[in-house]
Amino acid sequence: MALILKKVSMKEQDPQARRSNFREVALGYSLEEAMEEARRCLNCKRPLCVEGCPVNVNIPQFIQAITRGDIQQAYSIICQTNNLPAICGRVCPQETQCEQKCVLGKRGEPVAIGRLERFAADYCIERGIEENVEIQPNGRKVAVIGAGPAGLTAAADLTKLGYEVTIFEAFHEPGGVLIYGIPEFRLPKSLVKKEIGGLKKLGVNIRTNVIVGKTITIDELIDAGFEAVFIGSGAGLPKFMGIPGENLCGVYSANEYLTRINLMKAFDFPNSHTPVKHGQRVAVVGGGNVAMDAARCALRLGAGEVYIVYRRSEAEMPARVEEIHHAKEEGIIFELLTNPVEIIGEDGWVKGLKCIRMELGQPDQSGRRRPVPVKGSEFVMDIDIVIMAIGTSPNPLIASTTPELAVESWGGIIVDEETGATSKDGVYAGGDAVTGAATVILAMGAGKKAARAIHEKLSGQ
Amino acid sequence: MYKIVYKEKLASGIWMMKVMAPLVARKAMPGQFIILRVDEEGERIPLTIADFDRQEGWITIIFQEVGLTTRLLAALNEGDSILDFAGPLGRPSELDGLKRVLCIGGGVGVAPLYPQVKHLWDNNCSVDVIIGARNKDYLLLEKEMKAVCNNLYITTDDGSCGRKGFVSDVLKELLEQGNQYDMVIAIGPLIMMKVVSQITKQYDVPTIVSMNPVMIDGTGMCGGCRVTVGGEVRYACVDGPDFDGHLVDFDEAMRRQQMYREEENHICRIMGMEGV
């Protein structure tokens, strides 16, 4: 059989139409398309794709089930190791994980593993097909801090192992970055709610409005009978550049901007009561996925022109290729090798963004060529909203109220890489709280690892 | 859901509510705040804790109807519930070791001042209090304050209660008369805190003000509440809400306070309410 070197393409909303709505951009495969794509899989004896997956989904097996049209079986195989497949199928960077390892990728395009995962999950969720899991409760309590990808995964795995798990979430809604950060058009919130609903049905307890470190401390949780604690509190602290004008009205951290729009539904103001400023000319500073998300939100709120201002070139951008591609299709303007030096204001409001052109010098510690300012190249962009998307760091609330918890100077919790164990006995951590801002799937992988380690410790294995 | 167990009208458009929130009450300290959301479509707004009872598990909030959310909140009654209520947030006020303090409250700012005055009084500190309001109908907690301080001074803009004028007039007099204070604590409108801080700076009296900017999460995540203090950017939610009044950039804070005025007016109008 001849190799088919291209993926079956997936339908997307037309760029011109989607730039003014918040509905999902990628529309998913039909059953026929999924089966056709699944047939491209070579079903390797030693599947490298599985090694590339942080939660080791049994990829060839589930794809083989799709070729047979047995989607329920495919879903079931995925769910053995992945508790949030509809989410992962959409937001995992497959191109640097499972799909990067796919043998087909050497000659052409790898199998569209992410799209197939998404298909299987959507297909079963739409039809109300649920995983039946037999759980033997062991009566032992574990606390999880933060209902984001790491916490949800740890909680689900521990619940399946029989533990009585309670997640404590600071916000009024579970989901973490899946709810407040990633926009509707990339990850529909109804879907996140359904996948979390599935975990609740499994038996995971979620207590919202509890800020660990403020409402309750880790020591108090342990005193209350929780035998282990997993910290998955993420990296929620926004960074600013420290340039003049950052406190002008109209300057947002990407965190605030996205939280207003996603969690608080500001795009639906005034039906939803939280406002957000709609700029006409919006500049988003940064080159990661969060920057792309913020820029594409600004466009959908009606901005005439939206700029990505990034100090390096496109090759160094940390955003997924797909996100950059989508942003460009929608008309986002890329100002590359450009760095803001000052936000210019008038009567307290943003009026412009003063930038300087950059050129690439010698590689720095990250291996990427370091951007250096070009003398005398300053210029002013006419801008009315500035969004800073230059990264986040872990929140110090928990560390500052848990004295025995060792943290890095930049705030990351120090853990044993194999187990997620922290310096405090019985306390584990994973996800962005440990690594700094990374991906959903890496956080899920860390949650999984810690769940296994907690089980080994508590069951004396 | 967080049940409202008591509601009282304190003045025109100013309400007091006791809300059952045992976990919050267990940890609450003077100077801290909560964040609430009235209903599914609601905004998250911060309100300072005005009183609490750890045993009974309630938190008192006092608020003025100014925008949509506070009006929706005011429409709830005893027995109703608030959808979300999280806290306690922010750093508690640092009140230990103070011997003589002047506390100044303006408008609805008198409410969050009360637990601090009470705490100081209970810890054998000598406390003078100045409270001010537009007129006597808007004056809060006069009786309660009287019970927990050495001297209570009242001002109203129109002279309908106490003396006519501003809290800052009394402050100036007290300092001119040579009264010595370890500290001045001022809570109220930004302009009041600004004027108070300017006066106390001349007399070199350390001054703490409580900032109440727009915020979403209250845990350091959004950065919307940033204030410039001594040339440095601080987050009111985690670094505050108390800051050194001599170092706060009030003009910037006042501009930032106005950021959503247009939207607030719009939403109030379409909901059939008067604008802000």
What does this molecule look like?
The complex is a heterodimer of chains A (461) and B (276). Chain A is α/β, with parallel strands linked by helices and 461 residues long. Helix content of chain A is 33%, strand content 18%. The longest helix of chain A is centred in the last third of the chain and has 19 residues, at 440-458. The model of chain B has no long low-confidence stretch (mean pLDDT 94). Chain B folds into 3 domains: 2-89, Elongation Factor Tu (Ef-tu), domain 3 (Beta Barrel), CATH 2.40.30.10; 93-201, Rossmann fold (3-Layer(aba) Sandwich), CATH 3.40.50; 211-276, no CATH class. Chain B is 26% helix and 32% strand. Chain B starts with a strand and ends in a 6-residue tail after the last helix. In chain B, the strands form 3 sheets. A 7-stranded antiparallel beta sheet of chain B has the order 6-1-2-5-4-3-7. Chain B is of the alpha/beta class. The interface between A and B is large, with 39 and 42 residues.
The CATH class of the largest domain in chain B turns out to be: Alpha Beta
The largest sheet of chain A, given as strand count, sense and whether it forms a barrel, is:
5 strands, parallel
Helix/strand/pairing category of chain B: alpha/beta
Number of alpha- plus pi-helical segments of chain A: 18
Q: What would you give as the CATH superfamily of the largest domain in chain B?
A: Nucleotide-binding domain of ferredoxin-NADP reductase (FNR) module
Low-confidence stretches of chain A: none
Spatial gap, N to C terminus of chain B: 28 Å
Multimeric status of the protein: heterodimer
Average of pLDDT of chain A: 94
With strands numbered from the N-terminus, the spatial order across the biggest sheet of chain B is 6-1-2-5-4-3-7
Helix content bin of chain A? 25-40%
What's the CATH architecture name of the largest domain in chain B?
3-Layer(aba) Sandwich
The residue fraction in helices of chain B comes out at 25-40%
Described by the principal axes of the CA atoms, the overall outline of chain A is globular
Cross-sheet strand order for the largest sheet of chain A:
5-4-3-6-18
Rounded to an integer, what's the Rg of chain A over CA atoms? 23 Å
Number of E strands of chain A: 18
